[in-house]
Amino acid sequence: MPIALITGITGQDGSYLTELLLSKGYLVHGIVRRASRTERPRIDHLTLDGTIYGSRLFLHYADLQDATTLRRIMLKSAPDEVYHLAGQSHVGLSFEIPESTCEFTAMGTLRLLEILRDLPKVPRLLYVGSSEVFGNPVESPQSETTPFRPATPYGVAKAFAVDMVRVYRQAFGMFAVNALCYNHESPRRGESFVTRKITRAAARIKLGSKETLKLGNIESVRDWGFAGDYVDAMWRMLQQETPEDFIIATGRLSSVRQVLEYAFNAVGLRWQDHVQTDAGQFRAADVQSLCGDASKARRILGWQPTVDLVKLVEMMVESDLAALQTHSDGRPEN
Ligand code: G4F
């Protein structure tokens, strides 16, 4: 039974990846940060299943600043594959908390690389990089050879981590690779990211809320895909003979304005009647447009995205409607 270890297992990508690896027969270890609340809504369906948790899925407490504990967990679990997904993932927030963003995302990755290279059996490592490393890019679409020009503290921290993974691959011969992922969403997306903020608001307004949705730059353009597809690409990357980085993207650009249209259309409303732009939601600096060229992933990994943005937004709105209706019945909202 292959053994995988996932940092960031409780996040959107971590939960889809755990399901994928379990379905492929892996034994999965996950690292979680200690918090007073023990609910982990994205993986509770797995951890509360007695046939899975404790036999094929294990959670361990640690965080990326705690090298001693991380090393102990690595030694004990002896993974064949490590998927490093943890970090501060909100670009806007990185302007408010730049030091902890760099501490977790940049130094956390370096710390993990140092631990892995000292292990008796060095596992394969997949790091989830980000399109934010391209910042204001020199070309569009971006490929694996496009130079990095990060424009946010988050982008700088990611660029450090991605380059460090490359350095350890070249210097120490590690099988360590970067998935340079563009925006990827799902019903499990965090509520502060723009797609989920929109789909949740559309669902609430449909069910009677009188609120006004306040957004920042709605002309911003992104390459949005489905998170379930992206974790499949991550797994494929670690099954290759040679370690290489890949762009994971749809290659299709859409604006926040289009996301608004798709979400409010899905509930039969006009977004213009419910949305205001708010200066407070604009970032100190924002990347205007990012589009990925995933032709290498298509060619070598046989990977391609399966869900387009209209379908993705509809899926998210449906899930938010269902969760809110459950909530209004008195049971907790997911
Ligand atoms: O949804 P976002 O916050 O995603 P962003 O900044 O592109 O970052 C996401 O994708 C990256 C690439 O994969 C990841 F590395 C990163 O971890 C994260 O997953 O914002 C998208 C766009 C931005 O231009 C933002 O300025 O939407 C714009 N926007 C407009 N109004 C807003 C809002 N973003 C947020 N979060 N909230 C708003 O009210």
UniProtKB/TrEMBL annotation:
Cross-referenced InterPro entries: GDP_Man_deHydtase, NAD(P)-bd_dom, NAD(P)-bd_dom_sf
Cofactor: NADP(+)
Keyword Ribosomal protein in record: no
Catalysed reaction, written as an equation: GDP-alpha-D-mannose = GDP-4-dehydro-alpha-D-rhamnose + H2O
Residue span, NAD(P)-binding domain: 5-316
Pfam family for this entry, one: GDP_Man_Dehyd
Enzyme Commission number(s) of this protein: 4.2.1.47
Keywords annotated in UniProt: Lyase, NADP
Active-site residues from the entry: Y182
GO MF term set: GDP-mannose 4,6-dehydratase activity; NADP+ binding
Similarity comment: family membership: Belongs to the NAD(P)-dependent epimerase/dehydratase family. GDP-mannose 4,6-dehydratase subfamily.
Function: Catalyzes the conversion of GDP-D-mannose to GDP-4-dehydro-6-deoxy-D-mannose.
PANTHER family membership: GDP-MANNOSE 4,6 DEHYDRATASE, GDP-MANNOSE 4,6-DEHYDRATASE
Entry protein name: GDP-mannose 4,6-dehydratase
Organism: Caulifigura coniformis
Source lineage: Bacteria, Pseudomonadati, Planctomycetota, Planctomycetia, Planctomycetales
